[in-house]
C-alpha cells in the first residue's frame, strides 16, 4: 500500500479545474463573473472555435493593481471574502479565489489590467500553471483575460469536448444568462470575428426581448411580489404561449443563475391549473433575499443553492405566480397576444393557389390609398320570442344572467325600417316573430364590456362577438368548461377544509424510515389534508381516513406523494391537485358541447361569465378560450392599404 503524501500545487489546480472548468463555457462564466464583481459597465467577449482555441473577455471595471495581478492567478487568493462571516453573507458572484488559477493550469492565459490611478497597465502570462514575471503593458481602464488552447496539456479532457458549434452554443447560452441577470451592463459577443449580438445597457423587459425573443415578451405577464424581505419579480409566459422550452426557463437568486427544484416545483404548481402537463412554461424570475438566507457555496459551479427557509421561498413563488395567472381573463389581458402573427402563419401554410388569391397586387406607378371606412348601421338584434326565451332559461339556466337584459335596456332602440335583412331572414327561418321592436346592440358604447356582444354562432362550435373595433371568437365548450370549473373550486373552498371519509378497512403498506419520520413530524398537517395515518411497528403505515373526493384513488400512492412533498418543501398540494383533476373532469362533462345551438342570450351570458371568471383566458388544458382580431388585423388579412 502506497504512503499518503501531499499533492503538488499544479496537480491540485488541475483537479480543481476538472470540477469547475468542464468546458470553455465554464471558463467564460468564471471570467465574466469577475468582471461583474469589478463593477464593469461593459463587457466584450471574443471567441474562436467555440472558445476552445481562444476566448477573450475585456471589461471596463475597476481593474487590478500591479501587486494584485500575480495574486489573482494563485489558488484561494481573493479580495471578496476574508472571514467565515463574509462567506455566510457573500454577495459577489465569485468568492472562492480558484477560478483563474484553475483556468491557468490547463491553458495559456494572459491577464492584463489597469486601475484608474495607474500610469500603465500590468500584464502577466501563465502557461501550464507556471507564471511569468509581470511586465508593463498598454491597456485602458479595466481588465482583459485571454485564454488560448484550453486543455492543451490535458488531452484526455480535451477529447471529451464536443464540436466547435456545440461548444459555442454552450458559451452563448452562458453569456445570455449573465446578460439577462445584469441588464444594466452592456454585452458584446463575437465568434470567429463575426458579431453575434450587441446588447446596450437596458431595462429588464428590453433585455428579455433581446434574449428570449419579442414573442415571449408580448405574451408575458409581469410579476412583482415582496414578502418578509424576499422579493420576486420578472416575466412569466401566458398559459397560451406554448412555445416555452426548458431553455427558456431562467431562475436567478440574487442575480445568480441557478437550477433549483423547489422553485421549479412552485412554478409547475402555479401553472398546474392552466397549462397542459405536456407543455412547458417560459419565464425569467428573479428572487432577491438576504444573503444570510441562502447558501451559494453548495456546488462547484455555483448553479445550486440551499435556502434557509425553503418553505417560505416556495410559498412566495407559488402565490405570486398563482395570483398573476388568476388575473388572466378578458378584463385584465388578452388570451393570445399576437393574433395577427397567428393569422399570418396560417396563411403561409396554405397551398400556393390559396396564397395567390391573397397576394398583394403588383406595384403600379401610383399607389392609391384604400377607400375610407363608411360605417354601416349598427347590427340590429331583435328581441327573442317568448317561446325562444323560455327554452333558453330551461336549457342553460346556470349561465343565464339578468344583466343581459339590463344591458339591452340601456342601449338605444333603432328604427324598425333599418332592420338587418340577413338577421331578419334567419329569424324567419327559425320561426321567430319579428313583430317586436328591434334592440340595437352597439360595441361602441362607452360602457361596452371587453368581450362585446354576441352576434352569431359559427358551426355550432364558436361564438362570434363584436367588441369595440374588434371581432371576438370564442370556443364555447372550452369557455364553459373553465367557468364551471372555477365555480366548482369556489364551492369547494367555501367549506374551509377538506372533507374526509373514514375507510372501512384501513390501507396498510410498508414505508421507508424517511416516510415514517415525516408522518410523525407533519401529523397536524396531514390531518388538515384529510389524512389520518398511524404507525405500526415502526415499519408500516395505516391510513384510516382520506379526502372524500379521493376515496377511490390509489391510497398508497397518494400518501407517498404527499409525504415526498412534505419532506422536500414542507408542504404539499397533492390533495388539492387531485381534487382539481376530478373537478376538471366534472366540469368538462357538464359543460356545453360543440354542436349545440345557443341562443343570443345564452351566448351573451357566457361572455359575461367569462369576464368575471379567473383564468378564463384558457381552458383547463391550457388552450385559449377566445381570440381578439382587431380591425388592423383584418385589414392586413384583406390587404387593405397594400
| Unreliable stretches covering 5 or more consecutive residues | 362-371, 373-382, 395-420, 429-445
Q: Treating each run of at least 4 consecutive H or I residues as one helix, how many helices?
A: 23
Structural class: alpha+beta
Let me know the largest β-sheet: 9 strands, mixed
Mean pLDDT: 79
Give a description of the structure:
The protein has 642 residues and is of the alpha+beta class. Helices cover 36% and strands 21% of the residues. The chain contains 23 helices and 25 strands. The strands form 6 sheets. Strands 1, 2, 3, 4, 5, 6, 7, 8 and 9 form a 9-stranded mixed sheet that branches. The longest helix is centred in the first third of the chain and has 18 residues, at 164-181. It is globular and about 85 Å long.
Give me some keywords for this one:
globular, nine-stranded mixed sheet, 25 strands, 642 residues, 23 helices, five-stranded mixed sheet, alpha+beta
Summarize the structure.
The protein is of the alpha+beta class and 642 residues long. It is built from 23 helices and 25 strands.
